[in-house]
Amino acid sequence: MEKMSRVTTALSSSGVSGRTMFCHLDAPANAISVCRDATQVVVAGRNIFKIYALEEEQFVEKLNLRVGRKPSLNFSCADVMWHQMEENLLATAATNGAVVTWNLGKPSRNKQDQLFTEHKRTVNKVCFHPTEVYMLLSGSQDGFMKCFDLRKKESVSTFSGQSESVRDVQFSMKDYFTFAASFENGNVQLWDIRRPDRYERMFTAHTGPVFCCDWHPDDRGWLATGGRDKMVKVWDMTTNRAKEVYCVQTIASVARVKWRPERKFHLATCSMMVDHNIYVWDVRRPFIPFATFEEHKDVTTGIVWRHQHDPHFLLSGSKDSTLYQHMFKDATRPVDKANPEGLCFGLFGDLAFAAKESLISSDANRKPYPGGDRRYPIFFFKKPDPTEQFAHVSSALSVFETDLDSNRMDWFVKTAQLYLLSGKPFAELCDHNAKVARELKRPQVSTTWTMLKIMFSDPANLMTPGANHNLSKLGSLPLMNSFSMKEMGSGMGTESRLERSKGESRQDNIHLEPGNSHISNNNEENEETEGSEGQAEYMFGDAELDDDDLYSMEHDNQAEEQEYTLPQEAFQLRHEIMDNPSAPEHLQQDKADSPHVSGNEAEVTCLTPIESFSLISISQPLFSPHLPASFFCPIVREMLSYYAEQGDVQMAVSVLIVLGDRIRKEIDDLTQEHWYMSYIDLLQRFELWNVSNEVIKLSTCSAITCLNQTSTTLHINCSNCKRPMSNKGWICDRCHQCASVCAVCHHVVKGLFVWCQGCSHGGHLEHIMNWLKSSAHCPAGCGHLCEYT
Amino acid sequence: VMVNGEKERVSLLFMKALVSTGSVDAVSQQMASHPQYLESFLRTQHYILHMDGPLPLPYRHYIAIMAAARHHCNYLVYLHSAQFLRVGGDPLWLQGLEAAPPRLRLLDHINKVLAHQPWLTACSHIQSLDSSCDIVCLKERIQKSQEEREKREERLLQTQTLQQTDMEEEEEMICFADPTRFITDPDFCYQEFARREEDHFQVFRVQDYSWEDHGFSLVNRLYSDIGHLLDDRFRSVTTLPSLHSPDLKRAIWNYIHCVLGIRYDDYDYGEVNQLLERDLKLYIKAVACFPDATKTPVCPLSWAPLKTSERIHVNLLIMEARLQAELLYALRAITQYMIA
CA A631 → CA A628, A635, A637, distances in Å? Predict the structure, then answer.
C-alpha cells in the first residue's frame, strides 16, 4: 500500500512540479542509481556512498552508508545498483574486486549485507535481475562474470568471456535468461544465464573498449553500445547476426548510455574524458544531439532516468562532486541553433537554395525548380508532444539558373589559362596580362594591369626618358599637365603624339578638384558597371582602350627592356602617380579623399582640356616625383580587396602573385590565404589543374604551399618481385630485397628517382646523368642504349 | 632459441630500420629476442621521431636529448645530437639549454619532475607551459613526455641489457657533449615515494585515472594515433610469451607503479613480496628509479640461470611500466588543466 501511494505521487508530481536542481557531494561520484519509486537516489564513489531523497525543491541526504572509522576499500565503489523489485536492496561493485550487497532494512548503522570477494580485479559493473529478487550479476576487470544467488554465500555460476576485461553486464529486460556483456577488446557477448560454459553469441561492436551497453526497455531486440571509439551503436539482436541499425558519432569516448523511457528512439550518453555534457540523441538523427545538459564542470560519471516511465527527469552524478536533477524542458536544444538554410553556387553561376518551407512560401516571386518538384521534406515526425521533438523541419530546395549568355564563365577559364604569373620581368607580365584582359573585353582589368605596371615599375628607367618626353610634349601639347606627361612619359612617353584624346584623358586624371560634378557622375557609373565587364567597356569608352593599345604595343616594350636591366628595388623615384588610370577606378567608390584618387576618377571621364591647362604650372610642385612605390600600396590593397569583394578573386590573386613582395606585406596573411583558397577552389572546379598547381606553387602562404604536399603518396612495385610494396619503407615484404636501388651506386634511392623507359633501370638523378655523360649503355649492364634528355 | 620464422621477422625489421634511419641502435638489438614487441616499439619510435606531428623534427630530437641527459645517458645524447643536426637543427642549441628557444627551456622543469618524481607533476606546470604557447605546447608536451620517456627508458633498458648480457661496448661512445648542459638542477633525483606520503601528495589511484579509460582518449586527442601505438606497446609487452607467470609480470608492473606512487585498489601488495625476491626487487627499483647507477651491474644472483631473453623481458616490463606511469601523471595534469 505504502509503496503504491508513493509511486503515484512520484508520477503525478512529475507532470506538475520538480525542477532542475543540484546538491554538492563531499566527493566525486562514480555511479548513481535510483530506487524504483523514484523518490531516492544512491550516489557511490571512491569516498562517498550516500542516499539522497528527491524532494520537490531539493535533495535531502537520507543516509550515509560509509560507516566505520577507517572505511575499507570495500566502500570504494565503481558501480552501484538499486534493486528494482526489492526497495531495501542495493549492490555495489568495489574497486578492489569485492561485490557487496546492502540491506537498508537492517537496524544497525552498518547496512552491509553480503560480501563476495571472488573477483581478483576491480569489479566494473553489478546488475540485478529485473524480475528475480535474488539474482545478481557482476562483471570484472579479470575477465569473468559471476552470477550470485543472494541466499547463498558464494556465486552460483561463473562465465568466462575469454576476451579481456568485462566493462558492462546487463540483463535483458524482456528475455528472462539472457544477458549481454561488453568487453575491453571491443567485443559484445550474449549469454544464457543457464549455460555458463559458452556464450550464445559474440560480435565485435567497437574498435577498442566497449564501455557500456543498454537494452531497449520496450523493444526486445535492441541493444545500444558505447565505446572508446566515440561511437554509440544500436544493434538489432533478433536476427542471426547482430545488425547495426543506428550509429551515432559523438565527440568523446562514451562512458554510459541509457535509453530514454517512453521514447523509442532516444538515448542519453555521457563521456568519461574531456567532454562534460550529457547528450540525449535521437538515433535517427545522429549528427546533432536532440538535447544537451551542460551543467557539470567535470566529466559526468553516472546518468539515470529518474523514473522508468517518465522521460522528463534525468539524474546525473559527476566527478565535480555534484548531483543533478535535470528537467528535460530546461535542456539546451542544439538544433535550435543550427542553421536551417543552405546555399550553394554551381560552377556556372547557378544557385541552389534550401530553406524552411515556411520561409520560402512567403516569397511570392519564387519559381519552382524546373526539374520537377524538388522539395525534400527532410524530417517529419508525427509526435504527440511538440516540445519533445525536433522542430518539424521541412525544407524546400530551389535552384536558380543564370542566363547562360550573360553569365558565362568562359572569360574566367581563358584568363586563367592565358595569364602569366611569373617567369618574366614584372612589366612584361603586366603588359601580357593587360593584353589578355583586353582581348577578353575586360577593359577595366586590362587598365588595372597597365596601371600596376606603371606604379611599380622601376622608376629609374622611366625617369630619364620620361622627363624628356614630358618636356617635348609640353611644348607640343599645351593641354597636358606636366604631371600627366611625366607619368606617361616613362611608360609611353611617345604615345601622346599618337592620340590627343588620350593625352587629354590622362591629364584629366591629374586634376585635383574632387568637387567636379562630372567626376562624381562618373564614379557612379563606374560602380554600376564594374560587375560586368561587357558594359564597362562602353563607359570607359574608346579612349581607354586606345590608351592600352598605346602602352602595350608601341612604347612599352622599350621601356620595359630598360627597366628589366635595372634593379627592381629602386623605387625611390616616383612621378608616375598621376598616370594610374585604373587603380582609382576600383578604389574610388567609397572615398575621394586622397588627391590622386580624385584625379584618377577625373581621368576617366573628364573631357575638358581647359582645366588641365590651368594645372600645368602647379602640378609639378604639388607632387614630388620621389614618391616611393609603397605610396601606392594602400591603394593597391584596396583595389585587390575590391576585386575580391566583387567576386573576381582571380584578379586579386593574380595581382598578388605578380606584384609579389611589393604588396604582400600590406595584406594580412589570412586574407591572402582566403583569396588563394577561393581561387584554387575555382580553378579546380573548372579542372584547370595546371593553373591551380602553378598558383599553389607561386603562393607564399605556408598554408597554401603545403597543399601540394597532400595526397602525394606514390604506390610502387618492388623492382625484384614486381609485386606492390605494401608497407612504407624501402624493403619489400615478400622478397626481402631493397626496392628502387640505384643502378650506379647500388644504394636505395630516397629522393628523385629517374629511370629509363626502355629498360626500366634507373637510380639517383645525378648518378644517372653523370653516367650517361660518359657511357651510352645502361649502367645496370642490360645492354640497353639509354638516353637522357 | 628462436624459430626460423621469428628470426626472419627480426632481421626484416632490422633491415627496415637500417634502411630508413641508417642505424640500428643497441637497444633495439637487445629487443631482438622479442620480435613482436620490437615491431611495435620500432613503429612507435618511428612515428614519434620521424613522422608528421605537431613538433618540428629538430625539436623532437632536442627534447629527446633533454630527457636522456636527465639520466646522464651519453649514448643517447650523442645519438640524438647527431640526428638533431641531420634534420637541420641549429648547432647553437647543442651548446646547452640556455641556447635553446624559450619554449624548449620551459620543458626543462617538467622534464626533471617526470624523470625522477613524476608524482610532483601538477597542472601548474602545464599552465606555465601553456601561458607561453597554448595548445601547441600541450601537444608538444605530450609528445615530449612520451619521447622523453621512451628515450629514458630506452636508455634504462640499454644500460641494463648491456651489462647484463656482458656487452662491453657501452662505454665506447664518444663523449660528444657533457649531458649536464641540457639540464638544470642536476641533484634532483628520485626520492622514496612512500616516505613522502605524509606530505600532501596523494596516492595516484589507477581506478580513478587509468590508461585504458582516460589516458588513451586524451593522448589520442592531442596527438592523433599515438594512443593506438602506445596501447599496442603496453599490450604486447604484457602478453609476450615468456617463462614468467602472469602473476610475476603483474607483480613487477605494479611494483614499479607503486614505487612511483601509483596504486591499484584491486591488488594485494603482499604478493609482490612473495613473488619477487629481495635482490630482484632491489634490481627493479634501481633500474626504474636510478638508471644512471645501473652501469655498474647489480644483477640479482638468482638470475644467473635465466635466459637472456627472459632478463630482457623483465627490463622491457620495467621500461613500459615506467613509461605508462609517467604518461599517467602527465596526462592527469593536462586533464586537470583542461578542466580548470
Answer: 5, 8, 11
